[in-house]
Amino acid sequence: MKSLMRLLLTVTLGFPGTVAAEMGAARGAALAQTCMTCHGPEGHSQGAIPSLTTLSSADIMAALQAFRTETRPSTVMHRIAKGLDDADITAVAAYFANLPRR
Fold it and tell me: Model pTM?
């Protein structure tokens, strides 16, 4: 009986984290669609705009936070980043960091 209780407790406590991770991944993918307008399919730019697939999650997070606080110059990124909270920034950074590098 103790084994069953331990198993149920483990599953119950582990499930919210799994759901949260899946929701974060889905949120990152949804938010990334906006990025792809300028940064190209799957964040791989063919032009002068930087490719996001060459950046680490930490680099993307730092850049978005700097754009949001307007400490990094930009033409439109500061307006886009102002609409993102910390969870959004983390989700987008994780999404692009998990794509294949180009």
Answer: 0.73
